[in-house]
Design a protein that fits this description.
This protein has two helices and eight strands; from the N terminus they run ααββββββββ. It has 116 residues and is α+β, with helices and mostly antiparallel strands. A hairpin with a 2-residue loop joins β3 and β4.
Length: 116
Protein backbone atom coordinates (compact mmCIF):
# COMPACT_ATOMS: atom_id res chain seq x y z
CA UNK A 1 0.00 0.00 0.00
CA UNK A 2 2.84 2.44 0.81
CA UNK A 3 4.29 1.93 -2.68
CA UNK A 4 1.09 3.35 -4.13
CA UNK A 5 1.43 6.51 -2.03
CA UNK A 6 5.12 6.95 -2.81
CA UNK A 7 4.69 7.38 -6.58
CA UNK A 8 2.11 10.23 -6.37
CA UNK A 9 4.25 11.90 -3.69
CA UNK A 10 7.33 11.83 -5.92
CA UNK A 11 5.33 13.14 -8.89
CA UNK A 12 3.93 16.00 -6.80
CA UNK A 13 7.44 16.92 -5.61
CA UNK A 14 8.86 16.90 -9.16
CA UNK A 15 5.96 19.00 -10.42
CA UNK A 16 6.56 21.64 -7.76
CA UNK A 17 10.23 21.83 -8.77
CA UNK A 18 9.31 22.26 -12.44
CA UNK A 19 6.77 24.98 -11.67
CA UNK A 20 9.31 27.04 -9.73
CA UNK A 21 10.97 29.06 -12.48
CA UNK A 22 14.34 30.53 -11.67
CA UNK A 23 16.05 33.12 -13.82
CA UNK A 24 19.51 34.46 -13.15
CA UNK A 25 20.96 37.83 -13.99
CA UNK A 26 23.53 36.03 -16.19
CA UNK A 27 20.70 34.49 -18.25
CA UNK A 28 19.00 37.87 -18.56
CA UNK A 29 22.00 39.92 -19.76
CA UNK A 30 21.75 40.86 -23.45
CA UNK A 31 19.24 42.23 -25.93
CA UNK A 32 15.68 40.97 -25.66
CA UNK A 33 12.59 42.01 -27.57
CA UNK A 34 9.46 42.64 -25.51
CA UNK A 35 7.22 41.04 -28.16
CA UNK A 36 3.69 41.32 -26.79
CA UNK A 37 1.50 42.10 -23.79
CA UNK A 38 -1.76 40.34 -22.99
CA UNK A 39 -4.21 40.95 -20.16
CA UNK A 40 -5.13 37.91 -18.02
CA UNK A 41 -4.59 35.43 -20.89
CA UNK A 42 -7.29 37.17 -22.96
CA UNK A 43 -6.19 36.78 -26.62
CA UNK A 44 -8.41 39.72 -27.65
CA UNK A 45 -6.36 42.06 -25.45
CA UNK A 46 -3.05 41.03 -27.03
CA UNK A 47 -0.93 44.04 -28.05
CA UNK A 48 2.25 43.89 -30.08
CA UNK A 49 4.99 45.89 -28.37
CA UNK A 50 8.30 45.12 -30.16
CA UNK A 51 10.43 47.08 -27.69
CA UNK A 52 14.14 46.16 -27.61
CA UNK A 53 15.48 45.96 -24.06
CA UNK A 54 19.22 45.59 -23.52
CA UNK A 55 19.78 44.19 -20.03
CA UNK A 56 23.34 45.05 -18.92
CA UNK A 57 25.34 43.08 -16.36
CA UNK A 58 25.57 46.15 -14.10
CA UNK A 59 21.78 46.13 -13.49
CA UNK A 60 20.86 48.79 -16.06
CA UNK A 61 18.52 48.46 -19.03
CA UNK A 62 18.61 50.48 -22.25
CA UNK A 63 15.33 50.44 -24.17
CA UNK A 64 14.99 51.13 -27.87
CA UNK A 65 11.79 51.74 -29.78
CA UNK A 66 12.50 53.25 -33.15
CA UNK A 67 14.69 56.30 -32.54
CA UNK A 68 13.55 56.69 -28.93
CA UNK A 69 15.74 55.31 -26.16
CA UNK A 70 15.25 55.09 -22.43
CA UNK A 71 17.08 53.96 -19.33
CA UNK A 72 15.98 51.80 -16.42
CA UNK A 73 17.34 49.47 -13.75
CA UNK A 74 16.62 45.88 -12.83
CA UNK A 75 17.41 43.31 -10.17
CA UNK A 76 16.78 39.57 -10.22
CA UNK A 77 15.51 37.92 -7.04
CA UNK A 78 14.79 34.21 -7.52
CA UNK A 79 11.84 33.97 -9.89
CA UNK A 80 11.20 37.72 -9.87
CA UNK A 81 12.60 40.64 -11.87
CA UNK A 82 12.35 44.02 -10.16
CA UNK A 83 12.26 46.61 -12.97
CA UNK A 84 12.50 50.33 -12.19
CA UNK A 85 12.16 53.23 -14.60
CA UNK A 86 10.88 56.81 -14.46
CA UNK A 87 7.36 55.46 -13.70
CA UNK A 88 8.57 53.60 -10.61
CA UNK A 89 9.18 50.01 -9.55
CA UNK A 90 7.49 47.08 -11.26
CA UNK A 91 7.54 43.47 -10.06
CA UNK A 92 7.67 40.89 -12.86
CA UNK A 93 7.14 37.27 -11.79
CA UNK A 94 8.80 34.90 -14.27
CA UNK A 95 6.30 32.18 -15.17
CA UNK A 96 8.29 30.38 -17.86
CA UNK A 97 11.78 30.57 -19.25
CA UNK A 98 13.88 28.96 -21.96
CA UNK A 99 17.36 30.26 -21.04
CA UNK A 100 18.87 32.36 -23.81
CA UNK A 101 15.73 32.14 -25.98
CA UNK A 102 12.55 33.42 -24.32
CA UNK A 103 10.75 34.11 -21.08
CA UNK A 104 7.28 35.14 -19.92
CA UNK A 105 6.46 37.27 -16.91
CA UNK A 106 3.29 38.17 -15.08
CA UNK A 107 2.96 41.82 -14.11
CA UNK A 108 -0.26 42.61 -12.21
CA UNK A 109 -2.17 39.92 -14.11
CA UNK A 110 -0.80 40.85 -17.52
CA UNK A 111 1.37 38.42 -19.49
CA UNK A 112 4.53 39.90 -21.02
CA UNK A 113 6.49 37.81 -23.56
CA UNK A 114 10.19 38.38 -24.33
CA UNK A 115 12.48 36.67 -26.84
CA UNK A 116 16.09 37.00 -27.96
Amino acid sequence: MNKFLLVPGILLFLTSICLSVQISQNNLVGKWTFVYWMEDGDETSKRDINLVMDFKDDGTVVTEMGKKTGNANYKVEGETIIYSDKRGKQVWKVISSVPGKSFKVNHKGALMYFQK
